[in-house]
Amino acid sequence: DAKTTQPNSMESNEEEPVHLPCNHSTISGTDYIHWYRQLPSQGPEYVIHGLTSNVNNRMASLAIAEDRKSSTLILHRATLRDAAVYYCILRDYTGANSKLTFGKGITLSVRP
Amino acid sequence: DAGVIQSPRHEVTEMGQEVTLRCKPISGHDYLFWYRQTMMRGLELLIYFNNNVPIDDSGMPEDRFSAKMPNASFSTLKIQPSEPRDSAVYFCASSLLLAGGLTGELFFGEGSRLTVL
After folding, report:
1. Which residues neighbour A51 within 8 Å (Cβ) at sequence distance 6 or greater?
2. Phi, then psi, of B13 in degrees rounded to 5
3. Fewer CB atoms inside 10 Å of the end CB: C or N, chain A?
């Protein structure tokens, strides 16, 4: 399985941008990069995904390195509600390997 | 759509008892995943199905665990006999394969919190 590595934790101040990194050096050409987050006492929820180009949605932006071996989830203005565990995972878009494995994720703390 | 529905939300049982967790995926989704989450081990994939067929069960801890998907709208995860180390939150998730404009995102249920005494 392609693996991802993330820092254990990160702190941010409210209303400041947050950049959450993820390394996936063994990514294959058919892997999408997905990000999920898990709020306290809830199941994980989808945040964003991308293949090669940078992506934006209402929740966040995803910046993907040119070689695709790393990516960064960007929260443009952190709020207290963004405090969560953020997971970066890879998903093969052909369906050949849909074994979606979550790592430890990165725990984001947001200071008021 | 009501989303992924899991039951029970909470279960407390005694060691040795049989536990059955249930999941109703989102209608039309063709993938179903069972995960287990503990503080020590994080979010672990136990098994996943595609079109009701188990594809990979290598994450199932041992023979005490079994999962079935008799039809597209229902799946069960059974633990028999249960042990205290099985205490965890069990999540079910469903998705569509990435295709065209679909995102292929996983939709998770709210989880079933199991406590084995």
Report:
1. A32, A33, A64, A93
2. -145, 170
3. C
The reply to whether residue B97 touches residue A103, judged by beta carbons under 8 angstroms, is no
Interchain pair A100, B104: CB under 8 A: no
Instruction: State chain B's maximal CA–CA distance in angstroms.
Output: 48
Beta-bridge mates of residue A86: A37, A106
Q: Which residues of B touch A45 (CB under 8 A)?
A: 108
Are B98 and A95 a contacting pair at CB < 8 A? yes
Q: Do B107 and A91 touch (CB under 8 A)?
A: no
The residue behind tokens 């292929």 is B104
Separation between Cα atoms, residue B56 and residue B45, nearest integer Å: 10
Q: How many CB pairs under 8 A join A and B?
A: 59
pLDDT digits (tens, 9 = 90+) for B69-110: 999 999 999 999 999 999 999 999 999 876 655 667 899 999
CB-neighbour burial class of residue B5 (10 A; exposed 0-12, middle 13-18, buried 19+) = middle
